[in-house]
Amino acid sequence: MEQIENKFTKFNEFAKSLLPIEAELLRQYCKFEDAEKNQILQILLRNASKIDKQEKFPEYFDKRKYSFVKQKCTQILEAHDVDKILERIQSWEQAILLDKIEKDQEKLCLQMFKHSSSNHFHFIKLYELARIYRHYLSIRMKLKDFHLVQNYLNQHELEYNYAKTINDKLNASSVEIVEHYIKNAETNDQWFDWLSEIFFNELLDGQSRILTWIRLIFISHNRKNYEPLKNHFHDFEKNICSGKFYSKRILSNFYSQFVLYHTYFKNLNQAIFYGYQSIKIINNDYLYYINNLAAVLLRANRPADALDSLKLANTIAKQSSNDHNKIGHAAFTIFAYIDLKKYQQAQTHAFIFYRAFRKEILEHRWHLFFSAYFKALLLNKEYQDLLKIAQSCHLVELDASYQSNSLYRPNIPWMIALAKFKTKAINLSQLNQQIQEWSNNKSSINSDSQISELIELNKIVVSGK
């Protein structure tokens, strides 16, 4: 097997990067009459839907057949890739503005104007390109091409104005939706209904529909309710499979959202499958995808796999300017060490990160980070250190201001109370009274599993084992 991997390195890299929906696209458009090429293709497509136990490719086939299959598959995927199409449109725009557009480029550009409609994925960008191109053509007396472009502009003017109005309204909605997401407040149902109407509008351009999808995900994630999105996910997947919404970037993001979707419905194996698919390529959202995967692996009691995944993004996490994702990565790493019973490593990792990013933690995901850090300190019996940090960071006051949040859980005061009990600042009766109050207050507990985790930690710490 090692020999074939060395012999077909580029093909194997391509095979490992292929995503299940890409395989569906290739099933529709990629056919070979040659039996050996077709066998290579079929193995390639089957393997795309497997995380492990991959089928082996025949070693005795001619290397050129592997190269041909890879080349053909790449051509088909790139022809449907909306990111590649955008790159072409932008290259034409630059060439026109710099008076450098070539004959072959003009031919392709004109063909796109001739055959595309208002539901083209990049319709707004294409329409604006036509406006620029019209200036270029008119002063050069290229009247035939000028009239084609002018007709395109006239024919689609109403659709363009409508699409621009939708985009302006999307920008207006973002202010409220993102603010509610940050505060975990309820978003008006009118936004969800309007966004859904736009998302399912097949006459609208794909980019606008993607933008509505992102906002719908924000709302559902904030509400912790993916039930209303069942049809949306089905429709999104259908549009990627058809090629309308396809690009590797969009597909990776879709798979990462599928992680959250399946986790909500407690389909953890499905969530993990899509989590691994989402990290097959490294892009600007890779750290976010890694964190999502690690979270569901931890929930599925697979801390070793979670830690292995998190380590893939260690360098990216250190260099990231996104404090939300950086802190999430640190917290999930601490939880993974704890679940592996590597308590000292968990504490050391937390201490180093806390010393380096104390300000950022307190501004962003302090509740998640200190839930992890304090758990490590309790399990290492570092009760005084926990109380010092809690006092230094004013966590009791911070927690009190957070209690109205819909996602609130009493991790921080619970763990502070445990540390106080172990340092004899309160007695067992006082501790039990506080715990009883939190246990009875259902508004402070998001799920039975969360209260169970805190009760289990309580037993370990109180018993001193």
What's the helix-strand series? HHHHHHHHHHHHHHHHHHHHHHHHHH
Gross geometry = globular
State mean pLDDT (0 to 100 scale). 91
Number of helices: 26
Low-confidence stretches: none
- The H-level CATH homologous superfamily of the largest domain, spelled out, is Tetratricopeptide repeat domain
The CATH topology of the largest domain comes to Serine Threonine Protein Phosphatase 5, Tetratricopeptide repeat
**CA(first)-CA(last) distance:** 49 Å
Radius of gyration: 27 Å
Strand tally, please?
A: 0
Largest sheet geometry:
none
Beta-strand share of residues: under 5%
CATH class of the largest domain, please? Mainly Alpha
Give the tally of structural domains: 4
Helix content, binned percent = over 70%
Based on secondary structure, the structural category is mainly alpha
CATH architectural arrangement of the largest domain: Alpha Horseshoe
